[in-house]
Design brief:
Elements (H helix, E strand, L loop, with lengths): L15 H13 L2 H19 L4 H6 L6
């Protein structure tokens, strides 16, 4: 967290698979992952259709490259 950079959390899992599921879920929940996904799919839409989607335009001012 920005306001508490030293704060740490401990997670306990029953097995390695459960641990990997948690790590994947936390990674995909991050702002950076979602931002990269949005940028990727924006480019994919443009490649397929040849134009920028209206949805993309609505978020253009909030995404920083």
């Amino acid at each position: 967290f920005v306001d508490e950079p030293e704060r740490k959390y401990s997670f306990v899992c029953e097995n390695k698979d459960e641990c990997e599921e948690w790590i994947e879920a936390l990674t995909k929940a991050s702002y950076e992952y979602m931002r990269e996904s949005l940028i990727f799919y924006r480019h994919e839409i443009k490649k397929i259709t040849g134009k920028v989607s209206e949805c993309s335009l609505a978020f253009q001012s909030t995404i920083y490259y």
